[in-house]
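Quick review question:
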């Protein structure tokens, strides 16, 4: 049953202040709108922040009904889902931006150009800029409405039967990709033989694939013979939310703006989640000790970029894409360097007492979403404990060392962090260094000493 078609008029009326009585002549009834939203994945983590933002901004008057596992075990599910939205079989859908060029929308190719957007921080900067709305406008060519752009994990070269560091190692390799003309051209420029496959079912015959840490850990792809190049990002796994034209047109202007604004307000909490997940997944993979984390040399990085110059030459034939590439390159020059994925190095434990030794507490306000709440940090004799005291409760521990105004932290799960510190009148502030290494949570607000 097409829920949205039945209830949109009722909410449109409610939004402008009209109402109708009940059969018994009692209080007027107002009806929330229900919009179905398709998601190929069976878990809603990619859409969680967006759904929550729509609910909050609409005061519960717009309900997004999940249709998970949409198009099931298909290879080209995004193309089929766009057709479903266009035909009205579903109201909204989450679509991977890399697949949009297969339906004639090339506006997002600057975002997924090889080796360009190589960090979660840069992805957020790009999606917070006017480029996001410019790229969304291009979805009209696919017969749908572009509503929002959502961030996703960095995709790195995963080696299943061989390693992928230098361009020579790609030559002749069967390399798994999601359906995408640009991804196909990139891997062909590197000398590989790109192949699409059903997500979650990477064939063992493939030499490698473009994957993110969450997928590798969740699918159990890490074995004693696999590898990941930790300082090479092919492109981000970003998404768009698209809507059926007729359904979107039936909404009031206020309702349409809520769906668009929710995308913008999703950006901060979603990127925080992605940073935390990447850190946590790296820690899990490091503890398992199966996957080999590789680092390309500066020369190899330069060779990789040189190998895909023909791809950029093709992209730059479009004046719009060329302009967007230049804007993203400018943003990249002003952004901190992308932190590589690596297992933490041993840290010499601090043996002497430091000005930071003691128990500290901090409260992060609601702007930090799921990371809001009370925190406790205990630093003592070179050991630390970090706890989130509010629900959901979690924590970690490890060792630390203070060198001048720099605090270096090593976690038991293999993660590292580096912060600048300052203590004034029993208040500790932590800030990122130019290396931008570590979880952002300790920098959310000042810490207050509550015990020695």
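Suggested answer, residue by residue:
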């Amino acid at each position: 049953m097409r829920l949205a078609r039945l209830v949109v008029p009722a909410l449109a009326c409610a939004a402008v202040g009209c109402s109708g009585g009940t059969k018994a002549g009692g209080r007027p009834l107002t009806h929330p709108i229900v919009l179905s939203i398709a998601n190929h994945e069976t878990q809603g983590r990619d859409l969680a922040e967006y759904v929550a933002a729509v609910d909050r901004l609409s005061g519960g008057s717009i309900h997004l009904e999940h249709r998970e596992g949409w198009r099931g075990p298909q290879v080209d599910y995004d193309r089929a889902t766009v057709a479903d939205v266009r035909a009205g079989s579903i109201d909204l859908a989450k679509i991977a931006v890399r697949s949009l060029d297969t339906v004639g929308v090339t506006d997002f190719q600057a975002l997924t150009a090889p080796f360009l957007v190589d960090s979660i921080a840069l992805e957020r900067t790009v999606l917070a800029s006017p480029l996001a709305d410019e790229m969304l406008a291009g979805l009209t060519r696919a017969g749908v409405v572009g509503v929002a752009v959502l961030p996703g994990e960095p995709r790195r070269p995963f080696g299943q039967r061989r390693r992928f560091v230098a361009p020579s190692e790609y030559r002749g390799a069967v390399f798994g990709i999601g359906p995408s003309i640009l991804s196909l051209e990139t891997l062909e420029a590197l000398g590989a033989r790109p192949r699409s496959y059903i997500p979650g079912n990477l064939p063992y015959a493939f030499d490698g694939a473009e994957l993110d840490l969450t997928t590798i850990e969740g699918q159990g792809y890490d074995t004693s013979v696999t590898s990941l190049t930790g300082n090479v990002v092919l492109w981000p796994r970003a998404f768009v939310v698209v809507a059926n034209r007729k359904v979107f047109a039936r909404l009031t202007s206020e309702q349409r703006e809520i769906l668009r604004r929710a995308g913008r307000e999703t950006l901060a909490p979603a990127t925080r989640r992605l940073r935390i997940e990447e850190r946590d997944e790296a820690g899990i993979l490091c503890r398992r000790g199966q996957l080999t984390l590789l680092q390309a040399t500066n020369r190899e990085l330069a060779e990789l970029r040189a190998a895909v110059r023909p791809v950029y030459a093709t992209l730059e034939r479009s004046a719009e894409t060329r302009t967007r590439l230049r804007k993203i390159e400018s943003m990249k020059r002003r952004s901190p360097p992308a932190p590589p994925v690596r297992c933490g190095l041993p840290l010499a434990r601090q043996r002497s007492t430091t000005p930071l030794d003691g128990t500290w507490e901090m409260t992060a306000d609601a702007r930090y979403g799921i990371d809001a709440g009370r925190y406790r940090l205990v630093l003592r004799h070179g050991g630390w404990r970090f706890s989130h005291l509010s629900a959901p409760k979690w924590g970690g521990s490890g060792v630390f060392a203070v060198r001048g105004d720099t605090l270096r932290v090593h976690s038991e799960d293999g993660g590292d962090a580096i912060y600048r510190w300052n203590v004034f009148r029993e208040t500790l502030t932590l800030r990122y260094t130019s290396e931008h290494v570590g979880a952002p949570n300790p920098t959310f607000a000042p810490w207050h000493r509550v015990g020695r």
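Why it works: Residues 3-106+126-150+239-267 form a domain with the D-Maltodextrin-Binding Protein; domain 2 fold (CATH 3.40.190.170). Residues 45 and 270 are 9 Å apart (CA to CA).
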